[in-house]
Specification:
Beta-glucanase-like, 1 helix, 29 strands, 2 domains, Jelly Rolls, ConA-like_dom_sf, hydrolase activity, hydrolyzing O-glycosyl compounds, Glycoside hydrolase, family 16, mainly beta, eight-stranded antiparallel sheet, carbohydrate binding, Immunoglobulin-like
Length: 401
């Protein structure tokens, strides 16, 4: 949960001081295995196709309107598998999960739920056109017309506690750890053997988190970025969006006072979150997710009121550049990885439910490289791995014309 307030997590103990390997991280480019993708496509008002690609076999398990669970072996075509279900009532709620026979072993996907809305996938017509982009073509600091910063860690020195954001992460976010170099946005994660005292605490690890909040936001569209990431214990890079209705603050200055810090949203889940891509530790998988509040309207964050609909996909070597994309329509959000060569969605979520009204409002973009924290299992980064880098070739937003 990228915007979730810290849940009773204090700061880390001091890492053992070590000599740091100060060298630019090398992006290795071995051939990656074909990625397993899966999901569903609504093919008519009353039918749906389930699919699994790049697997030796696959089963689908589904229910319609809370009826009895149906279980079927999917029809193979080489390494791709499909299963069609017809005669589904318009407006029916369909829940399903898939059992995938992947090269790394069989696994079950998470339960996914959608509503038969009477349209086809994708429902809208009209061509996509680029409405905004940053290609990071000018060396120096990120373009101030596009980007602000979230500064801090969630620690509020006035309250002496965590306030409104953070997930038990170890880094202090600051603008100077984001720069544009040789056609890429570079977010650098640092470890210092000598701490810096900020907000009354000692900080050893630094990174950056940049956002278009206050600069640019969009309602619906294709949002994508081409990204290469570190693949190391205790790293948590992310490309995601939050509802612009969130009551968080941002810092516009590239050189704010050392004591500066931002407050993150107290109404986090009720303004919505779209995780286009998250990664953790040494995994080959990247993660996609959606968060919303079960109530309608804006509310302070509260346990038991948050919903999510996660998925993940094996992309191979995350140190290579991959294109991470969502297509956000009024009725659904679809996720893609390397959509130019893999045009089938890896995850699809219906957003027509009345308590998903968050996703009918504008959102802004966030890019960051977190260190440790809840999502990583509080994994401890190795000081010898620093500095570590997240590279972004471009960020682009398209909308239907």
């Amino acid at each position: 949960m990228r915007g979730n307030p810290a849940v009773g997590v204090g700061l880390r103990g001091v890492l053992a001081a070590q000599c740091l390997a100060v060298a630019l991280a090398v992006l290795f480019t071995p051939d990656a295995e074909a990625a397993t993708t899966y999901g569903h496509t609504i093919t008519s008002a009353n039918s749906v196709r389930f699919y699994v690609n790049e697997a030796s076999w696959a089963d689908v398990h589904y229910t319609i309107n809370s009826g009895a669970q149906q279980n079927f072996r999917m029809t193979p075509s080489g390494t791709n598998h499909t299963y069609n279900v017809t005669g589904i009532p318009n407006g029916a709620t369909v829940r399903y999960f898939l059992t995938v026979g992947a090269s790394t072993g069989a696994f079950d996907t998470a339960w996914t739920q959608f509503t038969m809305t009477g349209g086809t996938t994708p429902p809208p017509t009209g061509s996509w056109a680029v409405v905004w982009e940053d290609t990071f073509s000018v060396n120096g600091q990120p373009n101030s017309a596009n980007w602000s910063y979230h500064v801090g860690n969630g620690f509020n020195p006035g309250a002496g506690a965590f306030s409104g954001w953070g997930n038990g992460e170890w880094e202090w976010y600051r603008p100077e750890n984001a720069s544009v170099q040789n056609g890429n946005l570079v977010i650098r994660a640092d470890f210092k053997t000598t701490p810096t005292n900020i907000a009354g605490r000692n900080w050893y690890q630094f990174s950056s988190r940049i956002t278009t909040k206050g600069k640019k936001s969009w309602k619906y569209g294709r949002v994508e970025a081409r990204i290469a990431m570190p693949n190391a214990i205790g790293t948590w890079p992310a490309f995601w969006m939050m509802g612009t209705a969130c009551d968080d603050s941002v810092t516009s200055s590239y050189t704010p006072a050392m004591s500066a810090y931002d407050v993150m949203a107290s109404n986090w889940s009720s303004c919505g979150e779209i995780d286009i891509m998250e990664h953790k530790n040494l995994e080959a998988n990247t993660y996609q997710n959606l968060f919303w509040d079960s109530r309608t309207g804006l509310f302070p964050w509260g346990n038991g009121l948050n919903n999510e609909q996660p998925s993940n996909i094996n992309v191979g070597d995350v140190r290579q550049f991959h294109l991470y994309t969502i297509e956000w329509e009024p009725t659904q959000i679809r996720w893609y990885v390397d959509r130019d060569t893999h045009p089938t969605p890896v995850h699809t979520v219906d957003i027509t439910a009345s308590n998903k009204e968050e996703f009918q409002k504008p959102f802004h973009i966030i890019l960051n490289l977190a260190l440790s924290g809840l999502f990583t299992g509080y994994a401890e980064p190795n000081p010898a791995d620093f500095p570590m880098y997240m590279y972004v070739d471009y960020v682009r937003v398209w909308q239907r014309q």
